Amino acid sequence: MMTGLDIYNPISGEMARVEELLIESIDSELTTLDQAATHLIRAGGKRLRPAFVLLAAKVFADEVEKAIPLATSLELVHMASLVHDDVIDNSELRRGQPTVKNRWGNRISLYTGNYVLAKSLALAAGYRRSDILAVLADASMRICEGEIKQMRSCFNIKQGLKDYLRRIERKTALLIAVSCQLGAMLSDAAAHQVRALERYGYYLGMAFQVTDDILDFVASEEVLGKPVGSDIRQGVITLPAIYALHYGQERDQLGKMLASPLACNRQAEEIISLICDSEGIDYAYHVSNKFAQRARQQLRHLPDRPVKDTLYEIASYISAREY
Amino acid sequence: MMTGLDIYNPISGEMARVEELLIESIDSELTTLDQAATHLIRAGGKRLRPAFVLLAAKVFADEVEKAIPLATSLELVHMASLVHDDVIDNSELRRGQPTVKNRWGNRISLYTGNYVLAKSLALAAGYRRSDILAVLADASMRICEGEIKQMRSCFNIKQGLKDYLRRIERKTALLIAVSCQLGAMLSDAAAHQVRALERYGYYLGMAFQVTDDILDFVASEEVLGKPVGSDIRQGVITLPAIYALHYGQERDQLGKMLASPLACNRQAEEIISLICDSEGIDYAYHVSNKFAQRARQQLRHLPDRPVKDTLYEIASYISAREY
DSSP characters for A164-189? Predict the structure, then answer.
């Protein structure tokens, strides 16, 4: 989804090391665990979180090699939450690959998630910096709360914009914010600069998730790596749906359908049409653009270095993704 | 199960604060999460891990108030693993109470476990001591490996003493060892004393788990808070069974039954009789006594303080528990 722009250019060498370290860090003697975790790593992904750790570190230092384990740790935190999400969502595919849950079952998925999370903390603990670990522990806690919120909001047509925003904050923005924050902390940036990068990551993550939720309506299955309309089918009500529920012409009919697990599953295409007919998609793009703009504004607090241009471009690109 | 001895006497004030802090630390705004976690705390338990943190700290200092959050953190780590175990084991009762899984389902259990674990790390992170967090992160990882091992060992009649010991090491001994170790570290004990307390906790934890596994055969449902023979019914092969599989007169018949999930479930009482008829229970008591003895031997490295007598008595008591 980031093909139009190579955000990895300034950090390509370090990202290759992250990929190696991901594999190395899962060297369990337990075959099943090793296979499940390796499957998870090989399934790929955008590696956004490690990229942001490295990019943020690079705002303050040319040499960011020491940030590689921390970058890897952030990807492992993210992966752990994905495995657990798959247990909860009963997903069969992620990024076009069978999920760990689909291949090894719930039990292995649960423990693989726990193991990968513990590994990530052990990697971060290697820095012997309690400030970094405190940020990670706090983020883990808030992400858990977000996961429970997401679960409880399914099929709830009474939720508003605020509920949605708080939900995606925990689901996505928080960990990207923390990635930027920790990268800056590791480069010993000044407190106001750490804060600016954290805000940058936060707004960028919000823009990213809103756009991702739009893509679930409008992209092709090929691009998504999973069926179009997965959210709707599972009763996950995202921004375009919330807009349509409030302002769409057929909002009453839509409300009835979205409140029913059966209708969400069987009449997903009809629901998607109703949402696309409202201006929900355009509205969501507008919201995503606003967040991206705020992300760019944070950059003014940072020193003028080449990597700042990359961060600016990412924020411009993210809300203008093709679909 | 520790009623014959009050190990909490030297630390009763601090333990009361641990109980309060357990409740305070679960102050989530999310009702379900709050209820599930509170249920978990209220279900009680022996609070062994916090007790060992405090007792170990008290070997080197009279005033151990600052160890209270760390003690609470260790109980939360333990609770998180219990909730996840219940998801995996499909247990309906724990300590005579419905499990979180039984009452709220798998999804809430999974996230409650994650949340409680994250909370525990956040509490420990409050000390801003990276050495303490490194020990905790490493222990979490090794505990996960142990959980997967336990799962894969069910119905496996080829396992020997070594497999069993390695399994209970991860399941129980490790976290009790870490509790003792961290308590000593927080009191700034010398390295060799920290090590002695860690070994003490390790051997004590081994003795404790072997005795616990014996109780599953010989105690009453009232004492256990769950049905007698739960392990056998789930195909969990513990020390008395391993002995009987190797040396019992009816070992072939026993082997066939223990390898079959159906027989374990339907003929549990017959299996238990076969194991009790071998000398498996006596042998397990012998092993437990050996571990308790080694635990006591570690104490000679510690300064002579009243709390050392308590630690000595615990080790003497643990392998002589009534049943």
Answer: HHHHHIIIIIHHHHHHHHHHHHHTT-
Nearest CB among A30, A134, A136 relative to B145 is that of A30
Residue boundaries of the structural domains of chain A: 9-318
Amino acid (one-letter) located at B174: L
- Alpha-carbon gap, residue A68 to A72, rounded angstroms: 6
Is B126 in the A-facing interface, judged by CB distances under 8 Å?
A: yes
CATH domain A9-318 topology: Farnesyl Diphosphate Synthase (1.10.600)
Name the token pair of A272: 């998607």
Task: Quote the CA–CA distance of A219 and A216 in Å, as a whole number.
Answer: 6
8 Å CB contact of B125 and A138: yes
List, run by run, the mean pLDDT of 10-residue segments along chain A (323 residues): 68 94 78 71 82 97 95 93 72 64 72 86 89 89 78 77 90 95 97 98 96 90 78 91 93 92 91 92 94 97 93 85 47
Query: Looking at residue A52, what is its pLDDT?
Result: 97
A-chain residue closest to B124, CA distance: A134
Residue A266's contacts (CB-CB under 8 Å, 6 or more residues apart) are none
pLDDT digits (tens, 9 = 90+) for B40-72: 777 767 899 999 999 999 999 999 999 999 999
- The ipTM of this complex is 0.77
Instruction: Kindly report the number of other CB atoms within 10 A of residue A280's CB atom.
Output: 25
Question: Is A105 at the interface with chain B, CB within 8 A?
Answer: no
Contacting residues of B for A128, CB less than 8 Å apart: 130-131, 134
**A313–B contact, CB cutoff 8 A:** no
Q: Is B32 on the interface with A (CB under 8 A)?
A: yes
Cα angle for residues A82, A202, A285 (degrees, 5° grid): 85
Q: For chain A, say whether B119 makes contact (Cβ under 8 Å).
A: yes
Structure confidence by residue, pLDDT tens digits, B127-185: 989 899 889 988 888 888 777 776 677 778 788 898 899 889 988 999 999 999 999 99
Dihedral angle sign, alpha carbons of residues A93, A98, A103, A104: negative
